[in-house]
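so ive been stuck on this for like two days lol. basically i have the seq below and the ligand is coenzyme A, smiles is in there too. i just want the complex predicted, nothing fancy, no docking runs or whatever. if the output looks off dont worry ill sanity check it later, just need somthing to start from for the group meeting slides
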Amino acid sequence: MAERSEVVFVDGVRTPFGRAGEKGMYWQTRADDLIVKALIGLLERNPKLPQEQIDDVAIAAATQTGDQGLTLGRTVALLAGLPRTVPGYAIDRMCAGAMTSVTTVAGAIGLGMYDLAIAGGVEHMGHHPMGSGADPNPRFVAEKLVGMDALSMGATAERIHDRFPELTKERADHFAMNSQIKLAAAYKAGYIQPDLIPVAIKSEQGWGLAERDEAPRPETTMEGLATLKTPFRPHGRVTAGNSSGLNDGATVSLIASAEAARQYGLGAKMRLVSFAFAGVEPEIMGIGPIPSTEKALKKAGLSIGDIGLFELNEAFAVQVLSFLNHFGIADDDPRVNLWGGAIAIGHPLASSGVRLMIQLARQFEMHPGVRYGLTAMCIGLGQGGSVIWENPHFDGKKN
Ligand SMILES: CC(C)(COP(=O)(O)OP(=O)(O)OC[C@H]1O[C@@H](n2cnc3c(N)ncnc32)[C@H](O)[C@@H]1OP(=O)(O)O)[C@@H](O)C(=O)NCCC(=O)NCCS
């Protein structure tokens, strides 16, 4: 009988994130090539990993057709040159795809069925615009199961502003500007680059190398943000400046049992403490991380005050503010999104969950005084996902 195991995050990497569309750096790059490139980078960084021992490869995408189709985990494993004995599968939970890849393989590891697994996600929003090819069941409308504007993520963010009038546009813009400032500072300090796998890219000018995220706008000011249009509602509050954008990118991680990580000398950057997903009203999906975090905290026997570092996906500034407001955390709390977030970096849907983990893992190393960290995100059609991690570098001293 297999014994239950502790689960650890051994390592994670990502491609730089691009701007989606014909002018974006990955327009001529296939989605599967992005995730293959990231996986090869992960394997090269972990030469001690016995590749034939990998139990599974779980790769997410929100749209699973074309260059994101054909059971990504398996195709990516073959294309990355993993032994043919290594199986793989595809995952979808919209924005929380990569997060769900991690929690799904973690479940198998925890149960003692797997020792080593690859988990990640990819989204090429240029090749696969949000919702493309979807055919929502007419019952959603006919039976008023879900309002049609629940399918527009920006419209759901406007509804958070409606429900919590104290979360003003000014606060959202301020949070968004800080995201840009924090990311620029993190790039300057060299915190982001070590986990980026450069990608060869083709454009009209010939071949080049993508080495940095393409979307950041470090020049962002409150004045500039104030002038932007509100595409989701006339005279609304959600703009291109206080939303995540449309992006292309891939992330991938190596998840293992604590025992396998020790046995093969792989190391562990984080220990998984608990995880949870929760559903909320689809029309106001951005509040999803609140109940999922409450569930994950309860399972861990922790309270929000125990969390020393937060990596919250910034789908929309107002949506993160609703989370902070709920838990009584200040908009500019230094524990939150230390290096900025998706508003600045980008949010290639199904890849973002592991991007949060990559950053939290690095921050744990730099903050041995922090014991617990949270990665959390909202998910289309009204869900939230949260994973609580423990810092293996924790030294018991206050930061
Ligand atoms: C909001 C959204 C519609 C904007 O799309 P877009 O119009 O293609 O965005 P752009 O990057 O072209 O920005 C629009 C304008 O705002 C400007 N802008 C964007 N961010 C800015 C900033 N930080 N400071 C100043 N100007 C900014 C751009 O320069 C552009 O100006 P222009 O029209 O004069 O060229 C799109 O990003 C979106 O749908 N985001 C949400 C994605 C989503 O739902 N994800 C899932 C979450 S659950």
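Residues 100 and 260 are 21 Å apart (CA to CA). Residues 95, 153-154, 217, 220, 224-225, 228, 231, 240-241, 243-246, 315, 347, 378, 380 surround coenzyme A (CB under 6 Å).
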